[in-house]
Amino acid sequence: MSGADAIKPGETLLSVDNVSLAFGGVRAITEVSFDIRKSEIRAIIGPNGAGKTSMLNVINGFYHPNEGRISFAGATRARMKPYEAATQGIARTFQNVALFKGMTTLDNIMAGRTLKMNRGFFWQLLRQGPALAEEIEHRKFCEEIIDFLEIEAIRKTPVGKLPYGLQKRVELGRALAMEPTLLLLDEPMAGMNLEEKEDMSRFIIDVNQHYGTTIALIEHDMGVVMDLSDRIVVLEYGRKIADGTPAEVKADQKVIDAYLGVSH
Amino acid sequence: MFYRETGQYKTSYAADMAVFPILQDRIGVGLMLLVAAVGIPLFATLFPATGNFFLQVIMIPFLIFALAAIGLNILTGYTGLISLGTGAFMGVGAFACYKLTTIFPGVNIIVWILASGFFSCAVGVVFGLPSLRIKGFYLAVATLAAQFFLQWCFVRVPWLFNYNASGAIEVPERTLFGVALTGANATAMTRYFVVLAIVVGLTWIASNLIHGRIGRSWMAVRDMDIAAQLMGIKLLPAKLLAFAVSSFYCGVAGAMMVFFWYATGAEPEVFSIRQSFFILSMIIIGGLGSLIGSYFGAALIYIMPILLGWLADVSGLPIGAATIEHLRVMLTGVLIIFFLIVEPHGLARLWQIGKQKLRIWPFPY
């Protein structure tokens, strides 16, 4: 963590260097390089099947790239497991909500604190003294997140019963509970109505400004992407076709072709 | 009306995070413990004939089955790993306790009952290793292997039952402060108190584990293991811990079953696959992922058939003993199906819904 803390805003936090990923004969990602700077909102866009989610899976260790290197906070990593990504401060949300359905909102967010809690097994058996003190301390932190996301009323509701929009919000809360350095959001606004999208956009900006969290965002709503992000990477068929500020990307002929199609 | 938390303000997180945050619940649990620790023994002293029968045939086995059900519930209900090896893990506890107390007769039997849980725990961890790679029905089959292998050991390794000609565990007499705890001279009352103390204590510990970080990591693994890894939960340690704790509970239950329920001896046949299914059906009907459900399940599956038989006896209807037995089995089956149709999530969910209704009573919402 200290490695990531030493990096100042605007310096490179994560760099993806020439990464390729193939599943058997299918090339999901081909020689993609880009970087994410500390405290920015970086969008990854592209048509369906462009390899955006695969890219996130590579970053947080679900997939191991066949070629190329990834460095996070100055350390280049070899094959990394997802929980190691978690210890380094990478959190994420999923395209299809991946909450713990049988648990309450509060327990879901508390589960995000797992890595920060370290009282041993024998204190846990008793749930007294230090173990209880630790629970209370982390409960306080989770209550701040609950406040921040305005989900006080559903704190004790099992998340399986919540409407979709709220589930997405709880999932964001669970990721925030990890106090991540880098937060990966995979289509945080998919399937939402306009009002929910506006709320979610506001939360993303607030997270970025309030906690200083670096955010990598996959999203299909171009209006949202252009408004929120500082820089955008565009993928198509697993290759990078553009990289730059929203204005640059919007004007890029390759991007327009990828989205609108080219007449032959 | 009486079950309403209006006016009970929580002013600290500690109060809000209590296992029973509502005052009425705390009173209810207190009353239940009072009945178990004072009421029932008093009843048994006043009416020794029925009382001892009640302790020996209903209360002691009910508590022991509830403990085994809690053990399996930790694994299956909370962590989502199906096991068909419960009977075998209980057997490991029983045989470990038997070996320990015959090798070191000087140490108190209660110490050995609890220590035998650790043997079961170690065996459980070994058979839990495949759980990282396989899930669901496949894991059930892997635990089935544990069941058959261990059961084979109980019958074929004579060292385990001290080369007894009967091939069974013969429970020796063990005392605490001159009072016989096990063996033919131990009264049902003494055994009941020991069982009650152990079961209540271990239930409290299970509740502590489940409400803390470890319980959350188990449930996270159950509900969405991919996301759990991203929270920094390592799957193998979390699953193995569940196997360890679960087997510990089953082992203690198995040891108590032989030493405090059968009290004189037990055949290895007790720890067959039948026992595994018996416990599994308890947690499915009681409620997966619920401690109180484990008690409900044990009550329904174990006590109900006895009650039905007793009712048939009392009713004085002119039916033969064999017919009563058949009717009992049939009725039990019908009731199990009935409860599952009414609430597939088990009796614990019915209990919860009932409490919710009571809260808003007399209004519908």
Task: Give the arrangement of secondary structure elements.
The complex is a heterodimer of chains A (264) and B (365).
Chain A: H1 2-6, E1 12-23, E2 26-37, E3 41-45, H2 52-59, E4 67-72, E5 75-77, H3 82-88, E6 90-93, H4 105-111, H5 121-126, H6 129-148, H7 164-176, E7 182-186, H8 194-211, E8 214-218, H9 222-228, E9 231-236, E10 239-244, H10 246-251, H11 253-260
Parallel strand pairs in A: 3-8, 3-9, 6-7, 7-8
Antiparallel strand pairs in A: 1-2, 1-4, 4-5, 9-10
Helix pairs in contact in A: 4-7
Chain B: H1 13-16, H2 23-46, H3 48-78, H4 86-103, H5 109-128, H6 136-156, E1 169-170, E2 175-176, E3 179-180, H7 188-211, H8 213-223, H9 225-230, H10 235-262, E4 265-266, H11 273-286, H12 291-315, H13 321-342, H14 347-360
Antiparallel strand pairs in B: 1-4, 2-3
Helix pairs in contact in B: 2-3, 3-7, 3-10, 3-11, 3-12, 4-5, 4-6, 4-10, 5-10, 7-8, 7-10, 8-10, 11-12, 12-13
Low-confidence stretches of chain A: none
> Biggest sheet of chain B: strands side by side, in what order?
1-4
Give the helix tally of chain B.
14
Radius of gyration of chain B: 21 Å
Largest sheet of chain A: 6 strands, mixed
Give me the Rg of chain A, rounded: 19 Å
- The helicity of chain B comes to over 70%
SSE order of chain A: HEEEHEEHEHHHHEHEHEEHH
End-to-end span of chain B in angstroms?
A: 13 Å
Average pLDDT figure of chain A: 89
The total strand number of chain B stands at 4
Going by CATH, the architecture of chain B would be: Orthogonal Bundle
Give the distance, in angstroms, between the N- and C-terminal Cα atoms of chain A: 51 Å
- CATH architecture level-2 label of the domain at 1-86 and 218-264 in chain A: 3-Layer(aba) Sandwich
CATH topology (fold) name of chain B: ABC transporter involved in vitamin B12 uptake, BtuC
CATH topology of the domain at 1-86 and 218-264 in chain A: Rossmann fold
User: Structural class per helix/strand content of chain A?
Assistant: alpha/beta
CATH superfamily of the domain at 1-86 and 218-264 in chain A: P-loop containing nucleotide triphosphate hydrolases
The level-1 CATH class of the domain at 1-86 and 218-264 in chain A = Alpha Beta
Bulk shape of chain A: globular
